[in-house]
Amino acid sequence: xxTVEDPGRLMRRDPLVATFRVRGPDPKEAFTFILVNVHVDxxxxxxxxxxxxxxYRAVRxxxxxxxxxxxxxxxxxxxxxxxxxGRLPSIATALSKVPTTTHGTKMYDNILFNxxxxxxxxxxxxxxxxxxxxxxxMQQALEVSDHLPIWAEFSIYEGGQPGRMAAPGSTGVR
Length: 174
Hints:
There is one protein chain. This protein is α+β, with helices and mostly antiparallel strands. The chain has one domain: Deoxyribonuclease I, Chain A (4-Layer Sandwich). Helix content is 18%, strand content 25%. It contains four helices and eight strands, in the order βββαβαβββααβ. The strands form two sheets. The protein has a six-stranded mixed β-sheet with strand order 1-2-3-4-6-5, covered by helices on one side. Strands 7-8 form a two-stranded antiparallel ribbon. The longest helix is centred in the first third of the chain and has 16 residues. 32% of the residues are buried. The C terminus is likely disordered.
């Protein structure tokens, strides 16, 4: 686990990076991935989203040979306004046109990955409506957060099916 260094202070909060392997399947078949957790400053979102494109590339090319890099968090923008980050080759968003704020008015949070490399994504994703799910009032939900939890489903097997093994140096964003 590490934070991405930002000597130029292009981002207010440094992205947090961690590597994971799913428990359960044989380690040679288990889905492995890198998560990049981000929180974009809404007042600087355009510049920070452009900087996150470089962060994504740097994590992809960090020498570990992991092809599944999943960037997630508060992007401060909807899926159509991601700047350079949204223009990376084969980049996909798990969510589209769905509010992620507790008030249900804006889409700020998302999960991004390379659609060619991360074949483990099942296509299922969503937002947990705290008000409906737990019968909370708006005030109670806002005490938890002004953002709703988001989720995406991935296969526990590398390549999305049992019997496949992770191959270092797979194709993806360069």
